[in-house]
Design brief:
Chain lengths: 173, 442
């Protein structure tokens, strides 16, 4: 990947937000720090993107984990990056929040942002990823689609998680 | 950086506890330090009748009712109606001590046969206050004794002068004419001239004249001798170390230093630790703001807040203690440099803690001993230990900040040295904080 930092949006695993600031204030602050051309307009766009316009003036500390993560991701999108890096975006979210978050992320991808996410949840890799990179002990073991990984394992009838574990066994992990 | 500053101010405004707590603590401690101790309450029973309150010594009068009132400069008198009531108040703990002036005080003094006695009863419930009252009363009684001795010595001098020079004297309502040595000598010299040469009486008169001369010459030294007897020890105090600051003026410097330390340390450490607690630090330093810029912003915020609070505090204290407002630029220099030095220490604390509460606790744990150590006077501990205390105090900003503020507020000198010391500490702690931020990102 040879993108410059400005082309990459990075979203840390834990929401990196100020709990005492509102949703709008957080977005506006980081938009200004990112030196985006029109911070107010960008804020408007992000509130629509995250479906949080009605919570814009609520302090982030009062939001649910899922909504906080949405704001967290929105901050990573402020500079309109071509590639968005997400570090375990759904960690510590309950299933309902996780589902809503993935709907949001898929919409980003549908709108043309390349989303790269790290996860330990194999089901999420299967359900949402077009391309899968498997890393173990710093070594890249696989690069392809989830279906290709199943084909590499060659065990029919296994669900994806079982196939994934089998793949690791075959690679000595 | 201004957006970060605005963000921190907004967070501070929405975190009243984070702002009010250090400010209230600092102001409370500051004002407590700047106020002198309360005067201890002492029951006071004066049995001296108004008419018997005066002691006549020669032609001079000592009014004991006036002398006793001088005690009230240092104690809070609770007037009572009897000796028993005074003692009851001490026993019940209503007052710390009772001072009783007996009705025969001046009578005994006037007789010259026995000393006048005053009675003092103490309540030892609070040893520190008991000692204060005891020392105060002892000191005032000694002052009264010295005054009496002085008066008696002056009266003796008048009598000796009468013996030497002659004059009129009044005793028990009768007036006397005292011839005096000088006049006696003159009469004798005239009588000697009337005697024939070689007369044996002439020789006797010569001897008496010599005695009169000798006596007058020696009496001329009596002024000095009696002055020494009246005040055998005279204190000439000169301050060699430290400034010439009065206790109240020093207390202002101390109160402001303590307040500044608490406010700045807590704010600098807290706002930096908050970036980590909110997980915002990694996001900020990924190209949005430099680590050094972040430190400068936090230091500036903490210093501006604490300087503002301290200025308000000085203005408030100025209502009670006389301050030289003409030195305002020097106050500002001391406040700003001290604020930045404390901020650097606060940042070093904030850089090694993961959350605001931990940073606040660490700041408190560090502040209190630092203030305590800086106030240990020389001679209070063993010399080697005092050297260690001085070295520790010099390694942190409190002592030089106190010196700088004392110099700026009270013109005690050494402002430049104290400011330089603070600048060096600011650089050292700033570098520590910067190094700590490397670990911060982990």
């Amino acid at each position: 990947m040879s993108k410059s930092p400005g082309d990459l949006g990075w979203v840390p695993q834990q929401p990196a937000l100020y709990g005492k600031l509102t949703v709008a204030e957080n977005l506006l602050l980081f938009a200004r720090l990112e030196k985006v051309a029109d911070p107010r307009e960008t804020l408007d766009g992000m509130l629509d993107l995250t479906d949080l316009r009605d919570r814009a003036h609520d302090q982030v500390g009062t939001l649910s984990g899922g909504n906080r993560q949405r704001v967290n991701i929105a901050i990573g999108l402020l500079s309109r990056p071509e590639v968005l890096l997400l570090d375990e975006p759904s960690a510590s979210l309950d299933p309902r929040q996780r589902e809503r978050l993935w709907v949001f992320i898929r919409r980003l991808a549908d709108e043309g942002t390349a989303v790269v996410y790290a996860t330990h949840n194999v089901q999420e890799a299967d359900r949402y990823a077009h391309q899968l990179i498997v890393l173990a002990d710093g070594e890249r073991l696989f690069d392809g689609s989830p279906r290709e990984l199943e084909r590499v394992v060659g065990s029919s009838g296994l669900d994806f998680e079982s196939a994934f574990v089998e793949f690791l066994h075959q690679r000595g992990h | 950086m201004r957006w970060l500053l605005a963000k921190d101010l907004r967070i501070l405004r929405r975190s009243p506890l984070l702002v009010l707590y250090p400010v209230v603590i600092a102001v409370l401690i500051g004002f407590a330090l700047s106020r002198g101790p309360d005067k201890p309450e002492v029951a006071f029973y004066n049995a001296l009748p108004e008419s018997a309150g005066r002691l006549e010594l020669g032609g001079r009068t000592i009014d004991f009712n006036v002398e006793v009132r001088r005690l009230f400069d240092d104690i809070e008198p609770v007037n009572v109606e009897s000796r028993r009531e005074a003692i009851d108040k001490v026993e019940s703990g209503d007052v710390l001590a009772a001072l009783i002036i007996p009705e025969d005080l001046t009578e005994n003094l006037q007789s010259g046969l026995e000393p006048g006695r005053v009675e003092v009863f103490y309540n030892a419930e609070d040893p520190a206050k008991k000692q204060f009252v005891e020392n105060t009363i002892k000191a005032q009684v000694q002052t009264a004794n010295a005054a009496l001795t002085q008066r008696i010595a002056e009266e003796a001098l008048d009598l000796l002068d009468l013996v030497s020079e002659g004059g009129d004297y009044s005793f028990l309502g009768q007036d006397f004419r005292v011839l005096g040595l000088k006049e006696s000598e003159r009469i004798l010299r005239e009588a000697r001239e009337d005697l024939p040469a070689g007369s044996p009486q002439r020789e006797d008169i010569e001897r008496v004249i010599s005695f009169a001369e000798l006596a007058r010459d020696n009496l001329s030294f009596s002024d000095d001798v009696l002055a020494v007897v009246g005040e055998p020890l005279r204190v000439e105090a000169r301050s060699l170390e430290g400034g010439r600051t009065s206790l109240s003026s020093f207390a202002v410097a101390l109160a402001v230093s303590v307040s500044m330390m608490f406010i700045t340390l807590l704010l600098a450490a807290g706002t930096l630790a908050l970036e980590r607690e909110e997980n915002a630090f990694p996001r900020l330093v990924r190209g949005l703001v430099s680590r050094t810029g972040l430190l400068v912003e936090k230091a500036g915020l903490a210093a501006v807040c604490s300087v503002s609070v301290c200025l308000v505090m000085i203005a408030g204290l100025g209502l009670f203690v006389e301050l030289d407002w003409g030195r305002f630029p020097l106050w500002m220099a001391a406040l700003v440099v001290a604020g930045l030095a404390f901020a650097a220490l606060g940042l070093a604390i904030g850089a090694i803690t993961r959350e605001v509460r931990a940073s606040s606790l660490l700041a408190f744990m560090l502040s209190l001993p630092l203030a305590f150590l800086a106030l240990v006077p020389s001679g209070a501990v063993a010399p080697a230990l005092y050297d260690v205390i001085r070295a520790v105090s010099a390694a942190f900003p409190f002592k030089p900040a106190l010196d700088a503020l004392d110099a700026a507020l009270n013109d005690t000198g050494g402002l430049g040295g104290a400011l330089l010391h603070l600048v060096l500490l600011m650089a050292a702690f700033g570098a520590s904080a910067r190094a700590g931020l490397r670990r911060f990102a982990a």
